[in-house]
Every structure is written in structure tokens, then in C-alpha cells.
């Protein structure tokens, strides 16, 4: 994903507080004042300041009222389920790291069961409150955050997550656990990514990088600009 990094070169030097004569002479001998930024309390002279990476997003517009309503509904559902996908990715990372440290199979099985119970207690009641479309979005976001489909997670973790995903998710929503997040092919997935990026930037959601690699600007060019359609 391409981000824009802005580096500002400041002319002339910014001086904070008083700089003693010796320091001024040293600077004058080594370079001109326009070459450096001096920050109070920092003895390191730098030619630039690295700022946080910023994504420039296109202005939202809609071809009609119905398109705007569909986007807002998708936004509401995405904001609702994203925290669960993010948490699942964090739990998976923790679990994999823990399992890798365990040597005996019985210890791994015991730990997997503990994680299963924890996930069921933490997620089950909330998942039951979700609609079918929210469940579909959740499965796709699980793939975005982990790089693994819900089906493969079941296969990978076996007993640990089998009951959780099949009994709680698939049976409730009648959804395909093999569903992937693919904003290159699916317009809805691109819109979900658009919603996420705007929510990350506004601070509404806490950013977690996608495990699936794609270029958001290329996607915007494809779905918004080249097709000549509005969101």
C-alpha cells in the first residue's frame, strides 16, 4: 500500500532559546544556517523532519441517494464487526506464539482448549446479535487481518476453533467460511477498505495493517476514476 511521506526543509534556521556564541561559530564553520534545523535540547542537526505517513483520500460523492444509503449501511456494519476481526488477529498471533513455545502435544491441546473457551465466552453472545451480512463482512475482515480464511483457521487450529467457527458463525449466518477479502475483484470489498482507511485516519478505529497486500490508490483508480462512477 502506497503512502505519502512529507519531508519539510526549513529556511532559515529555527532557533529556540538562546544559543551561545561558541555553538553559533561551530555551525557557521560547518554549514549555512539554511542547511539545518535546530531543536532545543537536541544536539543532532538534521536537514529534514520525518512526519507520520499520511494517506490522501479522495472526496466522497454518490451518484444518487440510494448509493449513499448503501454506503452508510455498509459503513455501520463494517465499524461494528471490525473490532472483532482485529481482536481475532491479535488472539491468533498470541496463540501461535504460545503454541510455538510449547514442546509437548498435550500442553498444546490444553492451551488450545483454553483459548477456545476464552474466545467462545468473549465472542459468542456478540456474534449472535449480528445479522447475516455482518457475519459475511466479519469473515472477510478475518481474512484481511490474518491473511487466512475462517475455513483455514478451523483447519489449522482444529479442535480449538472448530466448535467456535462452525457452531457460532457458519450456522448462524449460513456463510462460506472460505470467503476471502479481495478489493481488487469485489467492489464491496474496496468500499469496506475505503471505510476502514477513513475511520483509521479520523481515529474512529484503531489501525491494524492488512495481512493482504494491495495498493489502495490503484484500487481507487480502478473503482472510482477509471470507471467514472461515484461511490
Q: Overview of this structure, please?
A:
This protein is mostly helical. It folds into 2 domains: about 5-50, no CATH class; about 60-230, no CATH class. Helices cover about 60% and strands about 0% of the residues. The chain has 8 helices and 2 strands; from the N terminus they run E-H-E-H-H-H-H-H-H-H. The longest helix is centred in the middle third of the chain and has 37 residues, at about 65-100. The radius of gyration is 25 Å and the shape is elongated. It starts with 6 loop residues before the first strand and ends in a 5-residue tail after the last helix.
- Treating each run of at least 4 consecutive H or I residues as one helix, how many helices? 8
How are the strands ordered across the major sheet?
Answer: 1-2
Low-confidence stretches: 1-36
Q: Portion of residues in helices?
A: 55-70%
Number of strands: 2
Mean pLDDT: 74
Count of structural domains = 2
Instruction: Please give the oligomerization state of what you see.
Output: single chain
Distance between the termini: 21 Å
Tell me the layout of helices and strands.
Layout lengths: L6 E2 L12 H10 L18 E2 L14 H37 L3 H24 L3 H15 L3 H8 L1 H15 L13 H16 L13 H11 L5
Antiparallel strand pairs: 1-2
Helix pairs in contact: 2-3, 2-4, 2-7, 3-6, 4-6, 5-6, 7-8
Concise structural overview:
The chain is mainly alpha-helical.
Amino acid at each position: 500500500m502506497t503512502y505519502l511521506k512529507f519531508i519539510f526543509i526549513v529556511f532559515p534556521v529555527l532557533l529556540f532559546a538562546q544559543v551561545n556564541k561558541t555553538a553559533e561559530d561551530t555551525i557557521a564553520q560547518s554549514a549555512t544556517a539554511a542547511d539545518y534545523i535546530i531543536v532545543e535540547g537536541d544536539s543532532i542537526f538534521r536537514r529534514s523532519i520525518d512526519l507520520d505517513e499520511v494517506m490522501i483520500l479522495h472526496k466522497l460523492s454518490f451518484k444518487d441517494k440510494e448509493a449513499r444509503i448503501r454506503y452508510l449501511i455498509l459503513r455501520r456494519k463494517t465499524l461494528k464487526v471490525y473490532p472483532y476481526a482485529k481482536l481475532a488477529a491479535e488472539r491468533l498471533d498470541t496463540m501461535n506464539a504460545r503454541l510455538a513455545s510449547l514442546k509437548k502435544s498435550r500442553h498444546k491441546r490444553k492451551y488450545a482448549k483454553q483459548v477456545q473457551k476464552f474466545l467462545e465466552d468473549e465472542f459468542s453472545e456478540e456474534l449472535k446479535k449480528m445479522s447475516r451480512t455482518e457475519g459475511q463482512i466479519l469473515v472477510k475482515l478475518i481474512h484481511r487481518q490474518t491473511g487466512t480464511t475462517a475455513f483455514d483457521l478451523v483447519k489449522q487450529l482444529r479442535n480449538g476453533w472448530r466448535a467456535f467457527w462452525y457452531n457460532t458463525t457458519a450456522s448462524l449466518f449460513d456463510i462460506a467460511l472460505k470467503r476471502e477479502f479481495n478489493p481488487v475483484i469485489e467492489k464491496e470489498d474496496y468500499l469496506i477498505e475505503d471505510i476502514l482507511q477513513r475511520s483509521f485516519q479520523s481515529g474512529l478505529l484503531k489501525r491494524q495493517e492488512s495481512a493482504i497486500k494491495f495498493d489502495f490508490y490503484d484500487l481507487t483508480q480502478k473503482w472510482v476514476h477509471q470507471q467514472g462512477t461515484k461511490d
